[in-house]
């Protein structure tokens, strides 16, 4: 009896909350790195599924999409002048920083996302790095984190694509994210957020598998699993190439 | 044409790598240096991770040295006896070098240490060679000047354990070649290079070997040093990129063949002046990096400090 009452209550209040969920798709859910790999473009698209009309008085719908590559620890070093020469004299270890991170949005991040929600869902790059992997020492040196963001942004590894999610009729959305050529292997996490009034109202997560294929896979595996054989094969190739070129040139001259 | 490198995990232009290999191979064939001191900084410059650049550079040097040695052997430019003696010293030196390298790594200043040794040794050797070859060039231009004897008897000739080096026309003690080999092996392990740029002048000025056999003998010895380095890197850190090495090698072996032929046409003094200028240029380039304020003070490297 009580249970059915609760259920009834839920059903009654649901339309007021205007339940919105995400239905999404990716143009590809795996990326193969082959010898001629030169970056890849992923199309992330979707629609907002709504039960009932959105309640009156709520803000407009906004969408944020993040793509996050596998994380590794990184060492950030700073140079300083010691006895006339520039040397690395300070370093900070960040336990975990994504190798790639892109945030695509429908509008400026500060306008559509509140700090609390950013904190809760770790949406901006700064948040992702601070949330997962910050050591005690790094916490005190914010400039190292800023430097990490700056360096990786210049390398095109970190991107903020404000206004690059197209939203049509408050229902359909799409975004193109270009994956660079210097991609790290692993699972890439795609997160989609729907926001109203700077608050996340729905979210979804999908994965893109990035793997080396074919010859790239073979060479990589050999190097990891049979390093001695790999080293000897490399030498053999070098020796053959050296001898081959010498012999070929002798033939040409003769 | 873009090519994705499986170990370095970057995409590069295949023709750029072929060209790079070709230029370094050309210089290596011409001067008898392995080219390690050029290829490694050049690979850094095009964005290959340093660890991969060092290890793969060594693999490339193996190929260009073999190509060069084969060309030198046909004109009897390799003193095998001398090469084995140098190599024996070289292995001793490189064992000590690896130990010192580890010591510096744990102190956390290995980059600086490597850069400083580059500046110091390249600068010193480049300047010495330039001065010496300019002087002999001037002497040759001035008629009637006293001719310099090629074999000056010094303390080197008074040492025990004498051995006949037929191809070099030398009858000297094995101690100086072993010491030279050890010094080169030590520096090679620290700087991640074959050591030809130190070996060549050491052979000419310290051992008094004729220029004709210096290049071939140096290259022959470098093959073994860099082969050892390649396997060590492949086993300990998996940083040898076969794809990158193959592209560099393809360019390099062709370059080495052309370089050897051009080198034969040039006079020994000209060759030495050119090599010394090249060595000095690399030294100055690295020194400038150390002295000027870098554009970005911070650098990011994956992984944790050892």
List keywords for this structure.
heterodimer; A: 254 residues; alpha+beta; six-stranded mixed beta sheet; four-stranded antiparallel beta sheet; 8 helices; 36% helix; B: mainly alpha; two-stranded antiparallel sheet; 71% helix
Describe this structure as you would to a colleague.
- The complex is a heterodimer of chains A (254) and B (306).
- In chain A, the strands form three sheets. In chain A, strands 2-12-11-4-7-8 form a six-stranded mixed β-sheet. A four-stranded antiparallel β-sheet of chain A has the order 1-3-10-9, with no helix packed on it.
- Chain A is α+β, with helices and mostly antiparallel strands.
- Chain A is extended.
- Chain A has helices at residues 2-17, 109-112, 115-121, 125-132, 136-139, 142-154, 214-225, 227-253; strands at 20-26, 30-33, 40-50, 62-68, 71-82, 85-98, 101-105, 158-161, 166-168, 172-179, 186-196, 199-212.
- In chain A, helix 7 (214-225) crosses helix 8.
- In chain A, a hairpin with a 3-residue loop joins strand 9 (166-168) and strand 10 (172-179).
- Chain B is mainly α and 306 residues long.
- In chain B, 71% of the residues lie in helices and 6% in strands.
- Chain B has helices at 14-31, 36-45, 50-74, 80-107, 110-141, 175-191, 196-206, 211-237, 242-265, 268-291, and strands spanning 2-4, 11-13, 162-165, 170-173, 298-302.
- In chain B, the strands form two sheets. Chain B has a two-stranded antiparallel ribbon with strand order 1-2. In chain B, strands 3-4 form a two-stranded antiparallel ribbon.
- In chain B, strand 3 (162-165) and strand 4 form a beta hairpin.
- In chain B, helix 5 packs antiparallel against helix 10 and helix 6 (175-191) packs antiparallel against helix 7.
- Chain B is globular, with a radius of gyration of 19 Å.
- The mean pLDDT of chain B is 78.
- The interface between A and B is large, with 64 and 60 residues.
């Amino acid at each position: 009896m009580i249970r059915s009452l609760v259920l009834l209550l839920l059903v009654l209040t649901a339309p007021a909350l205007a339940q919105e969920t995400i239905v999404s798709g990716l143009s590809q859910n795996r990326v193969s790195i082959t010898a001629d790999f030169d970056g890849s473009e992923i199309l992330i698209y979707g629609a907002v599924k709504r039960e009932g009309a959105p309640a009156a008085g709520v803000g407009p719908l906004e969408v944020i999409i993040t793509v996050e590559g596998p994380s590794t620890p990184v060492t950030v070093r700073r140079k300083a002048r010691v006895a006339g020469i520039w040397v690395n004299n300070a370093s900070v270890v960040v336990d975990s920083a994504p190798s790639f991170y892109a945030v695509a949005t429908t509008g400026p991040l500060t306008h559509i996302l509140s700090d609390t929600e950013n904190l809760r869902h770790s949406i901006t790059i700064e948040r992702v790095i601070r949330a997962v992997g910050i050591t005690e020492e790094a916490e005190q040196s914010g400039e190292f984190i800023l430097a990490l963001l700056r360096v990786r942004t210049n390398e095109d590894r970190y991107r903020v694509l404000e206004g690059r999610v197209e939203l049509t009729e408050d229902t359909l959305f799409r975004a193109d994210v270009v994956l660079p050529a210097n991609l790290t292997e692993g699972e890439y996490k795609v997160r989609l957020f729907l926001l109203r009034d700077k608050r996340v109202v729905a979210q979804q997560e999908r994965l893109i598998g990035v793997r080396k294929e074919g010859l790239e896979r073979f060479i990589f595996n050999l190097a990891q699993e049979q390093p001695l054989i790999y080293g000897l094969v490399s030498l053999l190739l070098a020796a053959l190439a050296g001898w081959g070129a010498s012999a070929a040139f002798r033939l040409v001259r003769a | 044409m873009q090519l994705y490198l499986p170990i370095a995990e970057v995409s590069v232009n295949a023709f750029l790598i072929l060209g790079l290999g070709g230029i370094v191979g050309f210089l290596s064939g011409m001067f008898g240096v392995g080219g390690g001191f050029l290829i490694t900084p050049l690979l850094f410059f095009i964005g290959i991770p340093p660890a991969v650049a060092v290890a793969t550079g060594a693999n490339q040097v193996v190929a260009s040295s073999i190509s060069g040695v084969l060309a030198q052997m046909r004109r009897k430019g390799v003193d095998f006896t001398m090469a084995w003696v140098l190599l024996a010293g070289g292995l001793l030196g490189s064992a000590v070098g690896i130990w010192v390298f580890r010591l510096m790594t744990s102190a956390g200043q290995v980059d600086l240490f490597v850069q400083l040794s580059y500046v110091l040794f390249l600068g010193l050797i480049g300047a010495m060679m330039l001065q010496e070859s300019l002087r002999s060039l001037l002497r040759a231009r001035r008629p009637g000047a006293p001719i310099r004897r090629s074999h000056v008897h010094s303390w080197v000739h008074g040492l025990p354990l004498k051995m006949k080096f037929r191809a070099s026309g030398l009858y000297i003690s094995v101690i100086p070649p072993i010491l030279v080999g050890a010094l080169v092996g030590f520096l090679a392990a620290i700087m991640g290079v074959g050591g030809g740029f130190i070996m060549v002048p050491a052979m000419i000025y310290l051992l008094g070997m004729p220029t004709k056999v210096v290049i071939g003998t140096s290259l022959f010895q470098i093959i073994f040093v860099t082969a050892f380095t390649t396997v060590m890197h492949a086993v300990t850190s998996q940083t040898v990129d076969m794809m990158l090495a193959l592209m560099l090698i393809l360019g390099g072996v062709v370059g080495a063949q052309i370089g050897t032929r051009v080198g034969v046409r040039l006079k020994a003094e000209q060759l030495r002046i050119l090599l010394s200028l090249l060595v000095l240029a690399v030294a100055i380039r690295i020194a400038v990096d150390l002295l000027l304020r870098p554009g970005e003070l911070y650098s990011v490297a994956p992984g944790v400090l050892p």
